[in-house]
TrEMBL record:
Protein name in UniProt: citrate synthase (unknown stereospecificity)
Keyword terms: Transferase
UniProt GO molecular function: citrate synthase activity
Organism annotation: Sediminispirochaeta smaragdinae (strain DSM 11293 / JCM 15392 / SEBR 4228)
GO cellular component: cytosol
Single Gene Ontology BP annotation: tricarboxylic acid cycle
Length: 243
């Protein structure tokens, strides 16, 4: 057997026998293992079960796109409108991902993991609100009564037997928030992502990694559509009201 070496230990090994991701041969990954399961393996270093892979796949699909008005999409299309390359356009959009856009699942997972160590969830939420911190995973600019994506994901997690303590805490936060903020805040997709991935054993930063992978597909689609269906700078003109 040849010795496998990697510039980044434990992630990819390349040798005479082929390529391994986290010790698993590419022959086993292509086909039966699938993309969602391979992604979980690469990011976490652990082999997801087939059931977990179904959940990861659903999370990827749900986060792939949310329209032209999402910050990363708007920036990607603007770059494409100026006829930057596909890679540059998508990279420009991904630069918008952070605490405000794309980071709420990470923040929600961290909050729920912290809540799991405390005795009083109401007190934790009260402290966050008093320090003017948002409660990640709640509220949405479009969905006022229910985020259908969050509902479907949490239902699937329950059906697959993957909903654990963090999903339970998320629902408890949903119950407590109207009392603490004086209004109902819809449980959104970021809350579902954060809770489910935390229950899968993913670290909070890994939640943002999944969002980046998923949203890259949507950004590619937006850039390619602009290249094929709009004149150069047409989208920019539309943003400026036709000026």
């Amino acid at each position: 057997m040849s010795e496998y070496k990697s510039d980044i230990p434990d992630i990819t090994q390349i040798g005479d026998e082929g390529i391994r991701y986290r010790g698993t041969m590419m022959d086993d990954l292509i086909g039966p293992f699938g993309f969602a399961r391979s992604l979980g393996l690469l990011i976490t270093g652990k082999r997801p079960s087939e059931t977990q892979a179904r959940m990861i796949d659903a999370l990827l699909v749900s986060a792939a796109d949310h329209g032209e008005k999402a910050p990363s999409a708007c920036i990607t299309i603007s770059a494409a409108s100026a006829r930057a390359s596909l890679g540059a356009s998508v990279a420009a959009g991904l630069l918008a991902v952070g605490d405000v856009h794309g980071g709420a699942a990470r923040q929600c997972a961290a909050m729920l993991l912290e809540a799991g160590k405390e005795k009083d969830l109401r007190e934790l939420l009260r402290r966050r609100l008093e320090s003017e911190k948002r409660i990640p995973g709640f509220g949405h600019r479009i969905y006022r009564e229910k985020d259908p994506r969050a509902t479907l994901l949490l239902q699937l997690a329950a059906e697959l037997g993957l909903a654990g303590r963090c999903c339970g805490l998320l629902q408890e936060v949903e119950r407590l928030l109207p009392e603490l903020v004086g209004k109902t805040l819809v449980l959104n997709i970021d809350g579902a992502h954060g809770a489910i991935l935390a229950d899968l054993g993913w670290e909070p930063s890994m939640c943002e990694a999944l969002f980046i992978v998923a949203r890259s597909a949507g950004l590619c689609a937006h850039a390619l559509e602009d290249f094929s269906s709009r004149r150069p700078l047409q989208f920019i003109s539309e943003l400026q009201g036709g000026r």
